[in-house]
Amino acid sequence: MGKFKEKVAIVTASSDGIGFAIAERLASEGACVMVSSRKHQNVDGAVRELKDKGYYHVSGMVCHVANKEHRSRMIEKTVEEFGGIDFLVSNAAVNPIFGPILDSTEEAWDKIFDVNVKSTFFLVKEVVPYMVKRGGGSIVIVSSQGGYTPSQLMGAYSVSKTALLGLVKALVPQLTQMNIRVNAIAPGVIKTRFSEKLWKGNNEISDNYLNTIPLRRFAEAYECAGAVSFLLSDDASYVTGETVAISGGVSNRL
Prior knowledge:
Strands 3-2-1-4-5-6-7 form a 7-stranded parallel β-sheet, with helices on both faces. The protein is α/β, with parallel strands linked by helices. The chain has one domain (about 10-245): Rossmann fold, CATH 3.40.50.720. Helix content is about 45%, strand content about 15%. The N and C termini lie far apart (about 35 Å).
């Protein structure tokens, strides 16, 4: 389609799952895309797969988003290779603990908030000057349906995703002065490796989640990519500070 021709995007945690689906969608629409992940072999594999599909304006970088030096190197490499930055999709997240919230540890909370919330904010802050140089830009933060309705088994993770809903709102007043829009998506249960404990197999956990979804199925990763493409594009030029729920009809309200 080419609607993102000459646009440059960074997509974090994009070697697999939702992040990879978003990177592929943006590349298919003409964007230059910087893929990133914590593991070198995963980055190489994702870049190779995208280039094998004919998306040659794709590069990759090892980046642990909680590491400031990693973020700086990723941003610098993006600018060196592609000339600037127009889009940021902040997708990286962790969930090191699965179970009742009162069983969670201080170490788990520190890690979750360091990666899911703090790193998202600072990545936005560090990318913004480069967007200003391009005359503006667009940011999408990947939150979660759990940010609206916390999972009983992923409590701390859910709270971190609620924080991202607030972060989007908090960023709007300042970013609009720079011609930068910021929005979010809130996926429900997506069939990825990250969330397989919630959907994989026929068991009580997956059955309980499935019973709450009006569409009666779990989503595929590519079903998030179209919403991100829309929010980044000029089709959403009057949309900022919003969160699009991709949850199969599950009610989402704080």
